[in-house]
Amino acid sequence: MRYIETELIKEKVQETLVKINFEFDEGYIKVLENAFMREEAALGKEVLKDLLENAKIALNEKIPICQDTGMVNVYIELGQDVTLKGRPLHEAVNEAVKGAYKENYLRPSIVEDPISRKNTGDNTPAIIHFELVSGEKVTIFILAKGGGSEQICHVGMLSPHQGIEGVKEFVLSVVKEAGPNPCPPVILGVGIGGNFDYVAYLAKKALLRSWGERHPDPFYADIELELISRINELGLGPGGLGGKFYVLDVRVATYPTHIAQLPVAVAFNCNAFRIGKIEI
Ligand code: SF4
Q: Which of 71, 122, 187, 279 is the most interior residue, by most CB within 10 Å?
C-alpha cells in the first residue's frame, strides 16, 4: 500500500494547468510545424503560421494561448493499492483549478447554473472522472477544453445495421456541419460502442492519446487514417478557410455494446490543444 497526500496532487494539477495554458507540448508544435510546411492553400498556411507565432508569444510573454481558457476536464486513474490522505480528491483538484486560474488571471469561463448563468469566478468546478486501475500509481490527464469545440461535439445512436460505413458517414456529416466553428485545425476523438453516456466519455478520452499512437486493432487504426484523409479531402482547411489540414489526428476508442445499439460520438478539440499528464 502506498500513501499519497492529496495536497501533492493539488500542487501538481495546479502547476500543470498553468503550464498548459501558456505552453503547447513539443509533440503538438511539431505537428503544427509539419502542417504549416505542407499546407498549400494561402489562407490555410497563414492560419498555421499565426498559430505557431501565437504559441511563441504565449510562451515568451506569458499570455494565455487563447482567451478562452477552457473548462478543465480531469481524468484520474487511481491505483487500487493507493491510499489517499488529506482532503477529498475532488476538493483538491478544484482548489488547484481555482489557484491556477485566479493567480494567473486566466479567464473564468464557468457559470454555476446553466440557466441563470452567474460566473463562479474561478473556473471551478472541473469535470472530474475517476477510474480505478491496478497498482500503486496515480495518473492524471488534464484537458483545458475550449467552449467552441465542445459545443460542436455530437453523439449518435446508430442502428447496428449501419455498421462501419454508417460510423464513417456520421463522423463526416458532423465535421461538415461543424465547419469553422470548432476553431480548426482540430484533433478528433471518435468513440464507438458502449452506451449513450459512455460513448461520449470514450470519444473525449481518446483525445488524450499520444501523437503517433494508433488504435491497437489494425482495423480501427486503418479507420483512423481513412477518416483523416476523407475529412481533409473536404478542403475545409485551417480556420475553415480552405486547405488540406482541417484535422491533425483522429483517435478512435471502442468498447463492447448491446446487440441493439451502435453508439458513436465525435469529440472535437480545437487548435488550442491544452493537454497535460501527471504521474505520481
Ligand atoms: S474553441 Fe479553442 S481556439 Fe476556439 S476560442 Fe475556444 S479555446 Fe480558443
A: 187
